[in-house]
Each structure stands twice: as structure tokens, then as C-alpha cells.
Design brief:
Layout: E1 3-5, H1 10-18, H2 40-45, E2 48-56, H3 63-82, E3 88-90, E4 105-112, H4 121-129, E5 132-136, H5 159-170, E6 174-176, H6 182-191, E7 195-196, H7 214-222, E8 227-229, H8 245-257, E9 264-266, H9 286-293, H10 299-313
Parallel strand pairs: 1-2, 2-4, 3-4, 4-5, 5-6, 6-7, 8-9
InterPro entries: Metal_Hydrolase, Pept_M19
Pfam family, one: Peptidase_M19
GO molecular function, one term: metallodipeptidase activity
């Protein structure tokens, strides 16, 4: 069964390796590197139809280096992910999903945290031009746009943050709520035409700041926004480094009970997590999850979770 996964951190790993840190102090081959949960071989084995690749900058990076680091990750996307692998097809417009052929894997650029462009909207417009189709205003920290889920102040969007959401709307770019503070979440839901939670779970099942309360889930669903369940065990079972398919299914079942059967997807967070669901340690194992879900949900529902819900809810073509 085809898979669309709305979040991974492979670009960060490629960048770290390129800079000679970790992974044997040598560059990683996107096609086959065992250190990549989402290498091409694993994506193909897992029947991935599209993988979203996040640009992520560590918040403690000096301000004058953040934009360059973002550009480096974008360059790696073009040279290592796309340039060396004809199977990987760059998705730059939502209708591009419809052009994927058998054996193709769509590759979507996203941004995790506005730290990369600071308050320079010219840089944001450049990100749109290179094909960024989803933007999360924060990681867990605060920045010039908003407070993240880990910021004790718990503030919402700044005027700049609201302007970014408005620009996303004009470009048919998703605004991602997964790392936002609670107040920031509500600000985005009010303003965004295309909200999404790219990698979050249900806080009613696992009380973690990265998960969403029921009223947040219902508000996101009311705007047609998907919640893409994340495979990180601490977000699945509270205070745990281990989890099972059954634990993840509790989240999916709860989200369905809130009206989300057509608004649930997958956002693995592969290459950004250190702990894994048993038998779902990398993208090649995706069909293990599908087979387990088919024991509890109809085939149509599972197809929805795997890829069809995203295709149905992606921004409609305006251009």
C-alpha cells in the first residue's frame, strides 16, 4: 500500500555527515546509508509514494549562520536526494502528486522553524521559490514568529508570525502546528487556510507537550487539517522509550472517535528520533504497520491513513 509521510529529518543527518561529524566522519549516501531511516532503498521497500523532507536548524546555531545552514540543507536536497536518484521526483505544486508514475517517489521540501529566515521575508519568498510547501513557525523554542511547545512563556504568534501565515495562505503553503505553543496553535487555526499537524499525536492518550488536546484536534479537523501521527515512543506512551503498534493504534482510534477517520495520516519523524516502535524502525518497515492496521480498520480507512486522506485534503489547485 502506498505511503505518504509528512515529516523526516534526513537532510539534517546528511548535513551533519557532510560536515564530518558522526557517522564515521564521512558523507552519507542517500540511496543506501544505513544511518538514514529514510534512505531511498528503505523508502522503496516500504512502498513510499512521497516523503516530506524538513529543513531544520538547531536553535543554538549563531544567528548569522542559520540562513546558510538552511541553504546547505536545500543544496543537499537537490544534489543528494534528487540529483543522484532518478526515482526521486521533486514535488513543487500540489498537483505534482498526480504525475507520479510507478516506481517514482515524490520528495517535498518543508521548513521546521522560522529561525532560518528570521524576520527577512525575502528569504521566506526564496523558500517558496525552491518549492517549500509546508512551514512550521517554530521548533520547541521561541523565535521571532511565535513560541514553541517547549517555551515556558507560552505566547502566541507575533505580528511577524501572523504575516507569515498570511503569506503561506497566498502561496497555498501548509502552516504546520506540530511544534507550536498552545496559544500559537489557536492563532494559526484562526488565520491559516491550510493548517496541518505534520507529526503529532493525541494528548488524551499520551500527555506530552508535543501532542494535541481534544479541542485542538477537533478545531484542526473542522478546518480540514490533517493530524499525521508520529512514531516517536515518548509521544506515544508517556515517559517511555518503547512502544508497540497497539500503542500507536490507541492514538489513531482516539482521533477517529473525534471525527478524524478522513483526516489522519503518517508523519514518522524518522531520522529525527532515537527510539522506535517495535518492527517500525525505519521506512522499509511501513507495511508492517499497514498489516497491523488492517486487523482493526477497513481497507478504505487504512488507505486513507496511508496516503488517500492527504491527497484528498491537500490544497486545491488555484493556479
Amino acid at each position: 500500500m502506498n505511503i505518504i509521510d509528512t515529516h523526516c529529518d534526513a537532510l539534517l543527518k546528511l548535513q551533519i555527515a557532510k560536515n564530518g561529524k558522526y557517522y564515521g566522519e564521512k558523507p552519507l549516501d542517500f540511496r543506501s546509508a544505513q544511518n538514514l531511516n529514510t534512505n531511498l532503498e528503505r523508502l522503496a521497500l516500504g512502498q513510499a509514494k512521497a516523503q516530506f523532507f524538513a529543513i531544520f536548524i538547531y536553535p543554538d546555531t549563531p544567528e548569522d549562520q542559520k540562513w546558510q545552514q538552511a541553504l546547505d540543507q536545500i543544496d543537499l536536497f537537490f544534489t543528494e536526494v534528487l540529483g543522484k536518484n532518478q526515482e526521486m521526483k521533486h514535488i513543487t505544486r500540489w498537483e505534482d502528486f498526480d504525475t507520479l508514475k510507478e516506481g517514482d517517489i515524490g520528495a517535498v521540501l518543508t521548513l521546521e522553524g522560522a529561525d532560518a529566515f528570521g524576520n527577512d521575508l525575502a528569504k521566506l519568498r526564496h523558500l517558496y521559490r525552491v518549492g517549500v510547501l509546508s512551514i512550521g513557525l517554530t521548533w520547541n523554542n521561541a523565535n521571532l514568529c511565535a513560541d514553541g511547545a517547549g517555551e515556558p512563556r507560552g505566547g502566541g504568534l507575533t505580528l511577524l508570525g501572523k504575516k507569515v501565515v498570511t503569506l503561506n495562505n497566498t502561496q497555498q503553503v501548509l502552516t504546520d502546528v506540530s511544534h507550536l505553543s498552545i496559544k500559537g496553535f489557536w492563532d494559526v487555526v484562526e488565520l491559516a487556510d491550510y493548517p496541518i499537524a505534520s507529526h503529532s499525536n493525541a494528548r488524551a492518550i499520551c500527555d506530552h507537550p508535543r501532542n494535541l488536546y481534544d479541542d485542538q484536534v477537533e478545531a484542526l479537523f473542522a478546518k480540514g487539517g490533517l493530524i499525521n501521527v508520529v512514531f516517536n515512543p515518548p509521544f506515544i506512551v508517556k515517559n517511555s522509550k518503547k512502544s508497540s503498534f497497539a500503542d500507536l493504534i490507541k492514538h489513531i482510534d482516539h482521533l477517529c472517535s473525534l471525527g478524524g477517520v478522513k483526516l489522519i495520516g503518517f508523519g514518522s519523524d524518522f531520522d529525527g528520533i532515537a527510539y522506535f516502535i517495535k518492527d517500525l524502525e525505519d521506512a522499509s518497515k511501513y507495511q508492517n504497520l499497514i498489516n497491523e492496521l488492517l486487523k482493526y480498520f477497513s481497507e478504505d480507512d487504512v488507505k486513507g491513513f496511508a496516503y488517500q486522506n492527504f491527497l484528498s485534503q491537500r490544497p486545491k489547485y488555484l493556479f
